[in-house]
């Protein structure tokens, strides 16, 4: 396969840029940014506009902020479970996993760890004695409240560079992307592992 000519590479690079609003520049609020295209420049893909790469980098930032300012004991998935049980106590583990958007094996592991830490407990369903439901303990309620406050402060720090309108736009777009894929929705299907 023949390498693309210099003119074709330049034309491709021009086609893969958009002018986007940028409130941090002095050039009339516009900046040029790459659009994810998969087009390689000199054999290397431009990851600066690759959503997967940016999501991974954002996750790194969130992990660092979480461990520095929220909790070193309670992980984000554990907080999601605690928060879900605060919103809807006395639900079974399957329903909890659906509401928390966690797959079966992850929710089972998280529940086991939280039970071991004394933050949640299994109790007989008062409406159906054949099954167990999950409930926060008093310690779990206080941990959830403390972590909720700290995570809100962390989110303020994370999004400090954005205006209120930009924050709403970002959250709206992230929800749209996640909701477009079944695995990202509450009760969504798990990816096949076979």
The SSE string, one letter per element, is HEEEEHHHHEEHH
Content of β-strand: 5-15%
Q: Globular, elongated, flat, extended or rod-shaped: what is the shape?
A: globular
**Unreliable residue runs:** 1-28
- Span between termini: 36 Å
Within the CATH hierarchy, at the fold level, what is the topology of the domain at 74-153?
Arc Repressor Mutant, subunit A
> Strands of the biggest beta sheet: in what spatial order?
1-2
Average pLDDT: 81
CATH architecture of the domain at 74-153: Orthogonal Bundle
The CATH first-level class of the domain at 74-153 comes to: Mainly Alpha
Rg from Cα: 22 Å
Notes on the structure:
By secondary structure, this protein is α+β, with helices and mostly antiparallel strands. The chain contains seven helices and six strands, in the order αββββααααββαα. Helix 2 packs across helix 6 (138-158), helix 3 crosses helix 6 (138-158) and helix 4 packs across helix 5 (104-116). The longest helix is centred in the last third of the chain and has 21 residues, at 138-158. It is globular and about 65 Å long.
């Amino acid at each position: 396969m023949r390498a693309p000519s210099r003119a074709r590479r330049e034309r491709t690079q021009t086609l893969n840029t958009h002018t986007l609003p940028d409130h941090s520049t002095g050039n009339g609020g516009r900046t040029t940014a790459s659009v994810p295209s998969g087009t390689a420049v000199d054999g290397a893909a431009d990851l600066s506009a690759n959503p997967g790469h940016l999501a991974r980098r954002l996750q790194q930032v969130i992990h660092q902020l979480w461990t520095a300012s929220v909790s070193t004991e309670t992980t984000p998935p554990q907080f999601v479970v605690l928060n879900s049980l605060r919103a809807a106590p006395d639900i079974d583990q399957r329903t909890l996993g659906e509401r928390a958007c966690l797959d079966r094996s992850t929710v089972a592991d998280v529940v086991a760890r939280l039970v071991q830490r004394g933050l949640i407990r299994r109790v007989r369903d008062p409406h159906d004695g054949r099954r167990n439901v999950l409930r926060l303990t008093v310690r779990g309620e206080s941990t959830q409240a403390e972590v909720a406050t700290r995570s809100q402060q962390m989110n303020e720090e994370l999004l400090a560079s954005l205006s209120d309108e930009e924050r709403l736009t970002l959250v709206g777009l992230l929800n749209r992307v996640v909701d477009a894929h079944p695995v990202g929705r509450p009760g969504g299907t798990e990816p096949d592992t076979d």
